[in-house]
Every structure is written in structure tokens, then in C-alpha cells.
Amino acid sequence: MNFPVDLMTLAAFVPAGLALNLTPGADMMFVLAQGLRGGPRAGMAANLGIAAGCLVHVLVAALGLAALLRAHPAAFELVRWAGVAWLLWLAFKAWRAGAPQMVRVGAAVAPLRIFREALLVNLLNPKVALFILAFLPQFIQPARPVMAQFAILGLVFCLGGLLINGAVAAFSGRIGGWLAGSERVARGLNRISAGVFAALALRLAVMERG
């Protein structure tokens, strides 16, 4: 049985996908913000949530449901503004969380809660679904099983994002750990996180639909 994806196609797809994952965007900035606030565990939890959301988007796109967002502007707008509202809520919570224990070294974190937040941030960004729908088909060969190709390439793309954002989580988490001993710096980190979330909400609100 032949492998669904042509090896030459896969060899071209991997560097292209990594280049796109290396481009700073909403997912990377969210992982960075969480890593600064809560350390490596928080950053990695956000990274895993983003990766899980990516897999869901790949599945939706593979089933053709992402085309619904492109064909029906109302559906796109509904999901987009839900994402804006969620990011603004995260910004509000981060701004209010001025207590130093939020980012103190060794402080308790809730990885599952951060995972859920990251998952929702990714799922409520319809641009991700539309991007996957536009990017992956460039490497699909109609003569081979389309669903299998889409699944494999999507998994490779999400894995690349997981590795790159994982490095971001580890790097930002260490910075957060080094600086968390100061109450003033701790509050400043929360303010920075709030600004990042607000900026992501603004970016999602003003983005073009195409």
C-alpha cells in the first residue's frame, strides 16, 4: 500500500509549514504571554491547547466545513466576534490579576484551565480555518486519497507549531521565573499579558476576511 502523501511533496511541505509556524502570530503571542505570566508549565499548557485547536481546524477543513465560513459571512462574523470577546475577557482578567503570586516562582498554576483558554482562543479564530483551507490544498494531489493527505499534512503542520511554540513557552517561562521575585515586576508582567490579549483581540477585530 502506497503512502498517501508523495515523499517529494512532503519534503516541500515541511519547510514551508515550519516557515509559517515561525512567523509570529496570535498563537505564538498567546503562548508567550502565558509563559511570562505563569512559567514553563503555563506556557506549555497554552501550547498544547493551541495545538489541539489546530487539529480541530484541520479536521473541520478536511470535512469541508470551513468552506461554510467562506460562503456565509454571517457565520464567519459570529465566530470572529466571539473570539474578540474571549480575548478581551482574558485581557480584563490579566489586568485585574495584580497579585504577585500569579507569577511567583513555584506558585500554583492551573494548566488545564490555561489549556482550555488556549483551545478556545484558537478555535474562535476563523482565520485559522480559512488559512488551513487555503494552504494545505496546495500540496494535495487529487489522484491520491484526499482525506488522508489532508490529515497527514495537517498533522505535520500542527506538530511543527507544537515544537516551535514549545520552544517559545520554555524561553518565556524562564524569563517569567527570573523576574517573578519582584512584586512590581509581577504586576508589570500581568499588565503586559493584558496588553497582548487586547492587541490580539484588536487584530482579530480588524482583520480582513479574505
Element-level helix/strand string: HHHHHHHHH
**Which range does the strand content fall in?**
under 5%
How does the major sheet shape up?
Answer: none
Which percent range fits the helix content? over 70%
Note the gap between the termini: 39 Å
Unreliable residue stretches: 99-108
| CA gyration radius, whole angstroms | 18 Å
SSE-based structural type? mainly alpha
Number of strands: 0
Overall pLDDT score: 78
Q: What's the tally of helices?
A: 9
Shape: globular
User: How many domain units?
Assistant: 1
Q: How does this model look, in words?
A:
With 210 residues, this protein is mostly helical. The radius of gyration is 18 Å and the shape is globular. α2 packs antiparallel against α3, α2 packs parallel to α8 and α5 packs antiparallel against α6. About 5% of the residues have low confidence. It has one domain. The chain contains 9 helices and no strands.
Using brief descriptors, characterize the structure shown.
single chain, 210 residues, mainly alpha, 9 helices
Q: Any chance you could write out the topology, listing elements then pairs?
A:
Elements: H1 7-22, H2 26-38, H3 40-62, H4 66-71, H5 73-96, H6 111-123, H7 126-135, H8 146-179, H9 183-206
Helix pairs in contact: 1-8, 2-3, 2-6, 2-8, 2-9, 3-6, 3-7, 3-8, 5-6, 5-9
